[in-house]
Records
---
Amino acid sequence: MQHYQFLRNLCFLLAICGLSGVVLAASTCNTCQDNNVKCLNETHFSFCSSGVDPDQVIGCPDGQVCTAYQRICMPQGAPPSCTEVNCPACDGSSPFVCISRTTFQTCNGKELGEQIIKCKDDTFCSMSSGKYCVDRCVALNLQSTFECDKEAT
């Protein structure tokens, strides 16, 4: 009974976070931020200024990540502005792959289908469920994070 109550409370908290606009994942890469830099990945950035060569890539010191804060590089543990997301590819073992939290494409063996399919509102792509799209609690109970944790394009 306590396990059920914990899961119910966790789902409620996740739903509230999603509705209030709280961002649990890092923002997009390669976008100019308020601190006038664009993080290219977790540890490298370039300046967003007409006076600086945009092709100049600067790395954060070891153990630090690129952030949207005034202090560009901060110790690991600070929320990075950009994380590389590796989504699953067609490998012949699944009839589809998630290409974002809310979209998927079919697989024909190791070939990706052309059509992008969107999940219904308030459902999320889940390969491990085998049901294509499920509610948030089901998706996060099967795995600790979404199988392709990025926004739909």
---
Amino acid sequence: MTILTQTSSTLGSNPLSSMQIDHVCLNVPNYEETLQWYQEKLDATIQHEWTVGVFPDLKLAYLSVYGFRIEIIGSTQSQSGMPIATNLGEGLRTTGIGHFCFRVRDVDAVLAELNRCGVKTFVELGSYPDPGIRLCIIQDNNGNLIEFVTPL
């Protein structure tokens, strides 16, 4: 009987080759409102909530949006929020995460459902042959940009 073992050479020599996105983190000025918005508008579920002893003013939560994990961090102390983009050009010129994106089966139907739930369209539906996608963009309750795409 021969036993096969995998070595680092069969798995790839670069330890970074095992990387996968785990979550996106959003720092928000209104923790409870943000949890509620993601639950009501994107059907998110709270996976876990916690605090960190050395940061007593912070609350943290992992939300699951159909397998995509978003970490929400908010302070219990009042904060002034970050500037909110008023157009896509401003949104693309900010430092940090400019937006995150969900791939969906039918972007037109998703946007119609979000609009039905009271979410305003930030960037109208459009088809873009160069990257091969149809997309729209919305903003969450804090002005974070969320893109939805369907491959053409």
